[in-house]
Amino acid sequence: ARFRQHRGAPMQTLLSPSIMLRTAGVAIARGVGFRRTGVLAHRRDGVQCARVIRPMASAASSSTETAAPKTADLKDAAGKDISGSGIRRRFLEFYEQRGHARLPSSSLVPEDPTVLLTIAGMLQFKPVFMGQAERAVPCATTTQKCVRTNDIENVGVTARHHTFFEMLGNFSFGDYFKKEAIQYAWELATKEYGLDETRIYVSVFREDDEAYAIWRDVVGVPEERIKRLDEADNFWAAGPTGPCGPCSELYWDFHPERGAEGADLEDDSRFIEFYNLVFMEMNRDASGKTAPLKNKNIDTGMGLERMAQILQGKPNNYETDLIRPIIDKAASMAGISYDDADDATKLKLKVIGDHTRAVAYLVSDGVLPSNVGRGYIVRRLLRRVVRCGRLLGVKAPEGAEAFTPAIAEVAVGMSGDCDPEVANRARKIYEEFEREELRFAKTLGRGEEILADMIAAAKAKDAEAPKLSGDDAFTLYDTYGFPLDITADVATEEGVAVDVDGFEDAMEVARTLSRDARVTVDVTAGDLLATIADELGESTRFTGYGSLVEQSVTVRAIVRAGERVDSAGAGETVDVVLDATPFYAEGGGQVGDEGEIQLANGVVLSVRDCRKAAGGRVFVHVCEVVGDSSSGNKPSVSVGDAVTAAVNAESRRRAKANHTATHLLQSALKRVVGEDVSQAGSLVNTERLRFDFNAPAGPTPAQLEEIEALVNGWIGDATDLVAREMPIAEAKSRGATAMFGEKYGDVVRVVDVPGVSMELCGGTHVANTAEIGGVKIVSEAGIGAG
Question: Whole-model pTM?
Answer without folding.
Answer: 0.63
